[in-house]
Amino acid sequence: MRKTIFTEGEFYHVYNRGVDKRTIFLDDYDYARFLQSMDEFNTVNPIGSIYENFFAKKLGHRVSKNKKLVNIVTYCVNPNHFHFILSQVSDRGIEKFMQRLNMGYAKYFNNKYKRDGVLFQGKFKAVHIDTNEYLLHISVYINLNNRVHKLKNSQFRSSWAEYIDNMTQGFCKKSIILNQFKNLKEYKEFAEDTFVNILERKSLLKELEGLLLE
């Protein structure tokens, strides 16, 4: 039984990695597919598969985007793991969203790469974000996670692009974070200062990264 009880209006750091630390995103299309899944599976009424949804749109059928399961506040998608900040807005929203996302992507991945078996390391992990200070700091950690891992040319695999560029379309509820600052410049300065602090506080960085090993 899951230790964390999800409550509407609260925030949670949700994360998982590939089984046996394996790479779960092998090319740009894999990343794009996962991000598309994050957007399309986030609805109370199931859409079926992305494949079916694509052809419904192509045939001119109206695809309903009704109430969401979760608000996605921040995300990052790395070669062998991912991090989200989620807040559920429907009954059992986080569980339903993550189940659809993990099962849908695993089915796509296994079919594409001709493999069988589980793709992710057990059930997704979740930590309750119990203070606003923690919420703001973990938003930076996730937004700039590509820099934590020194991944090049991967800034568009996190919500950072949505946060710093109003012209970038996305699906994050970034107002939850940005409305706490006077303007975007202030958040960017906060993010840069916090990022340096995280790297300097090696114990904190080790704690955050160690979550994936549990």
Could you describe the 3D structure shown?
The chain is of the alpha+beta class and 214 residues long. The protein has one domain: Alpha-Beta Plaits. It has nine helices and four strands; from the N terminus they run βααββαβαααααα. Strands 2-3-1-4 form a four-stranded antiparallel β-sheet. The protein is globular.
Short description:
This protein is of the alpha+beta class. Helices cover 43% and strands 14% of the residues. It has one domain: Alpha-Beta Plaits (2-Layer Sandwich), CATH 3.30.70.
Key words describing this protein structure:
4-stranded antiparallel β-sheet; 43% helix; alpha+beta; globular; 214 residues; Alpha-Beta Plaits; single chain
- Head-to-tail CA distance between termini: 16 Å
Strand ordering within the main sheet? 2-3-1-4
Can you say what the CATH homologous superfamily is? Transposase IS200-like
Q: Whole-number average pLDDT?
A: 84
Q: Percent of residues in helical segments?
A: 40-55%
Major sheet: size, sense and barrel closure? 4 strands, antiparallel
* SS strand fraction: 5-15%
Order of helices and strands: EHHEEHEHHHHHH
User: Can you tell me the CATH class?
Assistant: Alpha Beta
Structural class: alpha+beta
Total count of helical runs of at least 4 residues: 9
The tally of domains stands at 1
